[in-house]
């Protein structure tokens, strides 16, 4: 991996590392999973004026406009493939994008 120079980040932009973008195409996600992926990528690599709410089932389902019961099925498939991890377990699990692409299970 190349060293990337540190430069100022502007609010309102999402800076995704190229090594992640290059590997995203190998995931072969369906449309809902791709929406979930982007919601998590924005939280991990985006620059915000104020911190967004933690990405729980309800928050992500609302943001992606996916029915909660269907969202739960899709996020579980992404957890099974190690694309998403649970960063905090509890009453409302908090999800995180797994940027270690070597852990991902590809089809």
The first-to-last residue Cα distance is: 24 Å
Q: What's the CATH H-level homologous superfamily of one domain?
A: Winged helix-like DNA-binding domain superfamily/Winged helix DNA-binding domain
Shape: globular
* CATH architecture assignment name of one domain: Orthogonal Bundle
Strands, count: 2
Q: What is the N-to-C succession of helices and strands?
A: HHHHEE
Helix/strand-derived class?
A: mainly alpha
CATH class (first level) name of one domain: Mainly Alpha
Give the overall pLDDT as a whole number. 89
Major β-sheet annotation: 2 strands, antiparallel
Instruction: Trace the largest sheet across and list its strands.
Output: 1-2
- Tally of contiguous helical segments: 4
Low-confidence sequence ranges: none
* Gyration radius, in Å: 14 Å
How much helix, percentage-wise, in residues? 40-55%
Strand content: 5-15%
And the CATH topology of one domain? Answer: Arc Repressor Mutant, subunit A
Oligomer: single chain
Kindly describe this structure.
The structure is a single chain. By secondary structure, this protein is mostly helical. The chain has a domain at 32-101: Winged helix-like DNA-binding domain superfamily/Winged helix DNA-binding domain (Arc Repressor Mutant, subunit A). Helices cover 40% and strands 8% of the residues. The chain has four helices and two strands. The chain has helices at 18-24, 31-45, 57-64, 68-80; strands at 84-88, 94-97. Strands 1-2 form a two-stranded antiparallel sheet. Helix 2 (31-45) crosses helix 3 (57-64). The longest helix has 15 residues, at 31-45. The protein is globular and about 40 Å long. The two termini are 24 Å apart. The mean pLDDT is 89.
